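Annex B. Sample input.
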Amino acid sequence: MAFKDQEDETTAVKAPSEFTADTKWKAFKEGAIAFFNSQKGRGQIPVAYVIREHAMPDPNAVYDNEH
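Annex B, continued. Sample output.
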């Protein structure tokens, strides 16, 4: 498999600590995004692709399909 070497690498990005009332949102968000970018999912794609900036899609945007 071509990705064997990449699978064996250990990530240097540490998972963010639990979000609490004292946690600063911006720092937590940036740390979480960096961690998700370092984690590979199925097909060796970074897990961060599931993060969305907006809960609702832009109604004026043109999308390839409904998903």
